[in-house]
Design goal:
By secondary structure, the protein is mainly alpha-helical. The protein is about 60% helix and about 5% strand. A 3-stranded antiparallel beta sheet has the order 1-3-2, with no helix packed on it. A two-stranded antiparallel ribbon has the order 4-5. A hairpin with a 2-residue loop joins strand 2 and strand 3. Helix 11 runs antiparallel to helix 12 (about 210-225) and helix 17 (about 360-365) packs across helix 19 (about 415-430). Mean pLDDT is about 85; it is low at about 340-345.
Length: about 475
């Protein structure tokens, strides 16, 4: 067990250094002045002076006949300064969630009187999410290793390889290669989601108020980074309550639900007040006033009609072939926006997490054993799998109902899915103890999936963004 622990620590350290290398090789992430690199810093300054807007809209924007029409804005050389901001009542706002400002930028500014670099927040968030995910997986794998004896090579593959995939398959390469405001919000959301998942699993083991409060608070912060994450997190809350409500009295259920939901509701309520103060609508984050690639007045942002195409791509869209190193790439296709408000996809990701990171298929493999007495996974592993897999599936379906898909969106659920897949991987190798080893074909296919996942996550995505 000590040897596996040492390998795990070495893996996490190496992957953290890889993250830092990806950042260093893109110096514009640290020194660039393009507005998407500075928007959270600008919002921090605005909040400190008591203003919810970033700044008054520039005069040239207000003089346009239709400022929401990109063709009109594109004729002005300063269009990039207002890109993806929200224009409302003559002021510019940020439609991205405010949670990163509350958690990182405001405290840093208050303590050190200077701005926190966006690239550093993305690096710390990606590294932190990886460490928490590894800690959750370690609670499962260490117990299985103590109970099951495998040959040295199989033991190495079963208990060590998943930690390597966590760092490569969680789509961190997408986030670290370009640390704009988009990647910053996603990476912070991924960090808070992983902490919430870890806390929920620990609460299931220990039934401690501190884990419920931590889970609720981090879930609230995650929603403040990426509002749609609230769907998957709500599913987890319902499952957590369903697991325990028969074991507790009515009073105990009320107390436990309050400890879990109070911090979550506090954060969500804060966002509602923030949105109402800006746009007069507690549910409006600013996306319907966005100065982006489409006219927000003529765009159906979410619709069930998007589900079919997006779900097919999410499962079966393969990486594209390149005639040069790294030989694999990502097809990123932009489609013209419709002239009316009918549902129409405007952005197609053409990348499936199951095809790019085939290791994640082991999450589907474990589903076959979820309710089987033949599973080798301990109780904590079954709970961790259920939480991670349920969140990943719920978030995938939520994203599939969105009008635009992008490879970076996969990072919303890729890391929890990799944790779930790692538990399936453990079951896959440990089941061979009863079967006197795995057939050679299955062994080769599993190693191929492992290699492709590591190669794509660590090399292709790191070089593509």
């Amino acid at each position: 067990m000590r040897q596996t622990y040492a390998w795990s620590i070495a893996t996490i350290t190496a992957l953290t250094l890889l993250f830092f290398w990806i950042q260093v090789r893109a110096p514009h992430n640290w020194t660039g002045n393009w507005p998407p690199l500075q928007n959270y810093q600008t919002l921090t300054d605005a909040l400190l002076r008591g203003d919810l807007s970033l700044a008054p809209a520039p005069q040239w924007l207000l003089e346009l006949r239709d400022p929401y029409n990109r063709k009109e804005r594109a004729e002005h050389p300063q269009e990039g300064e207002v890109w993806d901001l929200s224009l409302f009542a003559g002021k510019l706002y940020l439609y991205f969630g405010i949670a990163p400002v509350l958690a990182f930028f405001l405290p840093y500014k208050a303590l050190f009187d200077q701005h926190l670099p966006s690239a550093l927040v993305v690096f710390l968030s990606c590294s932190g999410a990886l460490i928490v995910a590894a800690g959750l997986l370690w609670r499962v794998s260490s117990r299985m290793k103590a109970a099951i004896a495998l040959p040295p090579l199989e033991s190495f593959l079963a208990f060590y390889a998943p930690f390597l995939v966590l760092g490569c398959g969680g789509m961190q390469g997408v986030l670290l290669g370009r640390t704009h405001i988009y990647e910053l919000a996603i990476s912070c959301g991924a960090l808070f989601v992983m902490i919430a998942l870890f806390a929920l699993v620990r609460e299931h083991e220990a039934a401690s108020p501190k884990w419920r409060i931590l889970a609720g608070a981090c879930a609230g912060l995650a929603v403040g980074c990426r509002p749609h994450l609230g769907v998957g997190l709500s599913v987890l809350f319902l499952y957590s309550f369903a697991c325990h409500y028969r074991e507790r009295s009515l009073r105990e259920n009320v107390v436990c639900a309050t400890q879990l939901l109070a911090p979550f509701v506090l954060f969500v309520g804060t966002y509602a007040v923030y949105n109402w103060a800006r746009f007069g609508n507690p549910l409006e984050f600013g996306v319907h006033y966005q100065l982006g690639v489409v006219d927000p007045r003529h765009t159906a942002f979410m619709s069930w009609q998007y589900l079919g195409k997006n779900l097919v791509d999410s499962f079966f869209a393969a990486p594209s072939h390149l005639p040069y190193f790294p030989w694999l790439g990502v097809v990123d296709q932009l489609i013209s926006a419709p002239a009316d408000a009918r549902p129409a996809l405007i952005h197609v990701q053409r990348l499936s997490v199951f095809m790019a990171i085939p290791f994640t298929i082991w999450s589907l493999y474990y589903v076959m054993y979820a309710y089987s007495s033949s599973t080798k996974v301990p109780a904590v592993g079954r709970i961790a799998f259920t939480y991670c897999f349920a969140f990943a599936v719920s978030t995938l379906i939520t994203l599939a109902s969105f009008f635009a898909m992008h490879p970076r969106y996969l990072a919303d659920y890729a890391l929890p899915l990799c944790v779930a897949a790692s538990i399936g991987w453990l079951q896959f190798w440990c089941a061979s103890e009863e079967k006197s080893g795995l057939p050679q074909v299955l062994r080769m296919l599993s190693l191929l999936a492992l290699f492709v996942s590591i190669y794509f996550g660590a090399v292709v995505l790191a070089l593509a963004y």
